[in-house]
Specification:
Length: about 325
């Protein structure tokens, strides 16, 4: 066979196997939402009153969302039920499971009851069927169950264990150091706290405010989100199948993403976190919109990166094809 014939046949083969993608680059999913280098989850335990009084308003002012590990049948929570279940949830913070009473678990039956009672209460708040939530082991109380027993109860209740938690003594360590390390290593980390400006194992308000302001100053580098959102992002990202991109013209393409559900630890329907995708686009693009049938389009500016001009946007895997189109300016 001549070289020409080989080349011709390979071109035919490629055009059949690959959807048409020119003039766009190969789409890639970014490590963290929005293209951040690192992810941080702010975590607060025990549903303390000083968290409601001192942490929530400061988080809300800065549009930072956090995880609150609550004990839904403890006095402190019960006496502020409305604030936790309405105000905190409405501000889009996440309530995580910290057992119903913070009284520990001396055997498997107690473990199951403590976790399921708290899950039941959280289900009443969030409604609408099963959802993934975070779980944190209560400290300072008897905990006499095996890792296997815990894992089994957590899995059955769609709970993800918060691990490697960074509690700190502010006299010894500045909590921004956890954020700096996450940026340096490009990883997902946490800053875990109890009282804010009072109560037990407290972080003072100046140190807490410094931490939040540091996160705001580094907003382009750090994705601050509830623990469970970051968990879902990482799982979906790692289970992502090759992204399908099909060019409709020089100014429009279709894109769809999906996950290999065997690589997701819980049922695929529980993963609803959008992943951030980047696609190289022609130099003539300055703004673009992302749309899906029956939905309002979102519009964005094209970014200039060392690799050229890119469209960066976030879409949920397994939700069908999105159309990405250049917006004509002027
Ligand atoms: Zn606790």
């Amino acid at each position: 066979m001549t070289g020409f014939a080989v080349a011709f046949i390979s071109m035919l083969t490629i055009s059949h196997a690959e959807p048409y993608s020119a003039p766009f680059g190969t789409p890639k999913v970014l490590k963290f939402f929005g293209g951040a280098k690192a992810a941080i989850s702010l975590q607060f335990d025990d549903a303390m009153t000083t968290q409601l009084a001192n942490a929530i308003p400061r988080l809300n002012e800065r549009k930072l969302r956090a995880t609150f590990f609550v004990n839904t049948e403890n006095g402190q929570y019960v006496s502020h039920r409305k604030e936790w279940e309405v105000d905190v949830v409405r501000a889009r913070h996440d309530l995580g499971n910290h057992t119903a009473h913070h009284s520990g678990a001396k055997n498997e039956a107690e473990l199951t009851k403590e976790i399921e009672d708290c899950s039941y209460d959280l289900g009443r708040i969030y409604g609408k069927g099963p959802r993934l939530a975070s779980f944190a082991i209560p400290g300072g109380c008897p905990w006499k169950v095996t890792d296997a027993q815990l894992e089994s109860v957590l899995h059955k209740n769609n709970l993800v264990l918060a691990s490697n938690r960074n509690f700190f003594d502010e006299k010894k360590i500045d909590p921004t150091s956890f954020v700096q390390r996450a940026i340096l290593t490009g990883s997902w980390s946490n800053v875990s706290m109890h009282g804010i400006g009072g109560e037990w194992l407290s972080t003072s308000i100046p140190v807490f405010t410094k931490l939040l302001d540091y996160l705001v100053a580094n907003r382009d580098k750090v994705w601050v989100a509830p623990d469970i959102d970051i968990y879902k992002y990482c799982q979906e990202r790692d289970a992502l199948q090759p992204i399908h991109l099909h060019a409709l013209s020089d100014s429009k393409f279709e894109i769809s993403t999906s996950c290999d559900s065997t690589k997701l630890a819980f049922g695929p329907q529980l993963y609803d976190q959008a992943l951030t995708v980047e696609v190289k686009v022609p130099n003539s693009w300055t703004r673009f919109e992302v749309s899906r049938p029956g939905r309002l389009a979102d519009s964005y500016s094209v970014l200039t990166t060392p690799e050229g001009r890119v469209a960066r946007f976030s879409i949920r895997p397994g939700t069908g094809a999105f159309t990405v189109g250049k917006i004509s300016v002027g």
